[in-house]
Amino acid sequence: MEQDEVAVRSHDILVSSGTARASEFETLTTIGAAVRLALNLRGMPPVEYGLLREVAVHRLGLQPGEVRPALELLAEAEMVDLAGDNSTTKTILPNIPYFEDLYRKVGEAGASTQGLNEHEQLTLAVMHRLGQGPTSRNELTKLGAEDRALNRILQIGSDAGFVLPKRARGHDIYISPAYFAEDPQALADLAALAGSSRLGRILSLIKKNQGYPLSIIEERRDLGGTNLDDKDILLIKALAGEGFVPPPSVRTSHSGENHFMFGPRPGNTRLAPHEGQIFNNALALAAAVRQGQFLAREYKINYPAALVRALLRDGHLGSNSEAIEQYRIVAQHGIGRLVPTTGDRARLELIQTPDNIRAAKLAVDLLAGPTDKPTPDEELVLAMRKGEEYVEPLLARKSLSECKIVNADEEAKHAVDDFLLRRGCA
Fold first, then answer.
1. Beta bridge partners of 175
2. Residue 40 belongs to a domain with what CATH number?
3. Residue 71 and residue 160 in one domain
4. What is the pLDDT of residues 182-221, one digit of tens each?
């Protein structure tokens, strides 16, 4: 496995696990935490250590004891400088590269300075295999691990959420929740198998109406002008809960937690593992815009795709009093910065990097569709998250995971079983 994929999969495992930790993991957790910090430090000015530690623990989900080892690993990778005296780090000076180099450098530093134990190596081997598609239990035994060790890793993965076990007509099949985001052809194949069934119709609707809030879908019983019944809505929740469609969520003080339903990623090219965060950033930007379209306090967004096109064209959006809450998640992901203007107003400025431009273009592709009409300092960026919190798709899925496809629609379950068996038992 290449070193960039070691870092990518370590980060996926950490994010999917939330606050849960397996005692078998040590270096893997440090690598994942280092990536988590690096992604949020990119483009940042010097940051006071105490502030970064608070943000890492209370907003990024790291354990207190994980912050310093992660920073030391980033320093080893020459991605941050730790300023202070011999015993105390006072300030972090970030120098974070673009995504591909970011993952490679963290993976190389982690492997060279710390090393992975047998359980961590097996976990990464399993995740590498699942990254290629749904995989049967028999195929995973070919990795050469003892049954006891493999059982333990699959149990940890199932409990933490980075391995999704499925049962399809007597076969044990395992998938990665990141798989469908990385390979757009996978959902296309599932939709083709489903045909004109309820599942095929729902997948087609989600693809045409990317990022609609589940609460609005439930309230209106409608998606893109198509009426939905109870089984349709249950199936949408099941697809998100079982890892087939990414459901990032945004929590706000005025509208609570809202999941945004995204379907197959535009295009036919499979993402390389290190490109997954670019897609996740596109989801964050698209979710923020949909939040403003459907759940704004006062200033409603009428033309979502046109708004992001304007961000790409002009490099910024006009200022308003809702911008800080509206685009906090965009600043959190390092896509843009919030610049105060007058009073309580601020405007979003795009951070002009190739990765961010690509993420914004992906967000346009996600938002464009039949319903779209033509058309500071470190404390501000890192700590102004009171009242809103973006939950990444790998973790947000968990709050919907009690919705099972078998409970939603028997015909849909049949189509999913066909898909899993074709890919997992090939």
1. 164
2. 1.10.10
3. no
4. 555 565 566 555 555 777 788 788 888 889 998 889 999 9
